[in-house]
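Reopening this ticket.

The earlier resolution said the output was attached, but the attachment link was broken on my side. Pasting everything inline this time so it's all in one place.
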Amino acid sequence: MSINLEEFVEQFAAALDAADARRPVQGKFDPGIGPHHEDRAVDLIVTELRQTRPAWHIKLQQRYPASRQTCDLLLGQPPEWAIEVKMARPNHSVGTPDPAAVKDILSPFAADRSALSDCRKMAESDIAPRKAILIYGFDDADRPLTEMIAAFETLARTRVTLGPRSRALIGPLVHPIHRMGAVFGWEVKRRA
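Inline output:
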């Protein structure tokens, strides 16, 4: 079975919406998926995906060959895709700006484990025949998600070959700050 990245992005967005509709609570924050840490949010989303797409055989947190680092998702049996997932959340769950949001997506340093640094790590790995980066995020009028995505693409293309952008909208979500957003995905390959 071949898994299409565009379909995966659409289904990831639908699963995010479904997980959010269950009104999960993170600590003292209002319900919704927005306040959850990236790993926990991905767990909630994958739980939904496993119900709607069991044939995808999704595995979480699988080790890269000869490394201590893990890849967020492997799809297929045997694995067809390795996917790194990053969250772009410009605001904390109380509405104040999150200064780490840009670093989490655009830092060029491997130690920061950003979306940008994950691209090179994936492109150089043989963890699966196909590799992708997926960014899900929330809209903010002062720090638009689309501008962060455009900056990511510009920088990533200096390091790897990015396939075409896939995009699916999310929302409206239940949290008062993290209400609307999108999921983006790109296939990642070594630069020629």
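Reporter confirms the inline version is readable. DSSP finds five helices and seven strands in the chain. The radius of gyration is 16 Å.
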